[in-house]
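RECORD TYPE: inverse folding
INPUT: structure tokens
STRUCTURE:
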């Protein structure tokens, strides 16, 4: 079964993660040992977009899709996107680290770019509900039905948040919203959330270099769903979004 890790980081983090870093070669070694066939990689928060993209372009023995980190306070971001938009498969927005909601006007032009270029957007969803709550990316998804939005950490990386997020996606019948499984550890609640939104709305991720694929692949393997539905989660859903 093909596995695409839909949420990974390469490079150096700031002090929020104790300046931890890993290289592209480190990542590829981990991916191969874990049985990951391809990966979507975004910079860690202190790693420049351009440096990571250049490194990825030099790789010949493993398929890595580049995900651009969208920091609206980065003076180099606009020129980078203009120059490299054809090499970017996904955008990543991290409201907690930038300390503004994804619905803030500062992100509007970047969401416009994503929508115009049919680029999915991964939005970090965390426990800081005032800034990184899942309701804000859902607002964006409702206003922009042509924009595909992936809610990282299944909407909040906490069972109550994951399940309430899944219920809201179902009740509003969102067709452009997906849940990423990165960093979510509790098997029972992942299984329940998948049942609520359906496997067609879930994307596997490990959050490497902060997590390891070996830690999270078994959670998907053990889900109470059909093998072909696991394939959707492991690779087919994200492949469709990147190629649609």
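DESIGNED SEQUENCE:
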């Amino acid at each position: 079964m093909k596995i695409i890790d839909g949420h990974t980081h390469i490079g150096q983090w700031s002090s929020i993660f104790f300046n931890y870093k890993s290289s592209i070669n480190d990542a590829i070694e981990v991916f191969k040992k874990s049985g990951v066939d391809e990966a979507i990689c975004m910079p860690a928060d202190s790693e420049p977009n351009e440096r990571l993209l250049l490194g990825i372009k030099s790789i010949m023995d493993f398929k890595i899709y580049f995900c651009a980190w969208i920091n609206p306070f980065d003076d180099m971001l606009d020129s980078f996107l203009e120059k490299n938009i054809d090499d970017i498969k996904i955008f990543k927005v991290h409201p907690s680290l930038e300390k503004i909601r994804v619905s803030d006007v500062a992100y509007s032009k970047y969401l416009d770019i994503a929508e115009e270029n049919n680029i999915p957007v991964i939005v970090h969803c965390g426990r800081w509900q005032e800034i990184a709550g899942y309701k804000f990316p859902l607002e964006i998804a409702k206003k922009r039905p042509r924009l595909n939005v992936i809610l990282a950490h299944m909407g909040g990386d906490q069972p109550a948040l994951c399940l309430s997020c899944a219920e809201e996606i179902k009740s509003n019948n969102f067709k452009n919203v997906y849940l990423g499984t990165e960093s979510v550890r509790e098997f029972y609640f992942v299984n329940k959330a998948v049942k609520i939104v359906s496997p067609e709305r879930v994307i596997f991720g490990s959050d490497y270099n902060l997590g390891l694929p070996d830690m999270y692949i078994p959670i998907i393997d053990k889900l109470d769903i059909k093998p072909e539905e696991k394939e959707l989660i492991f690779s087919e859903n994200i492949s469709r979004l990147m190629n649609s």
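NOTES: The beta strands are 4-12, 21-22, 38-43, 63-69, 90-93, 121-123, 149-151, 177-180, 202-203.
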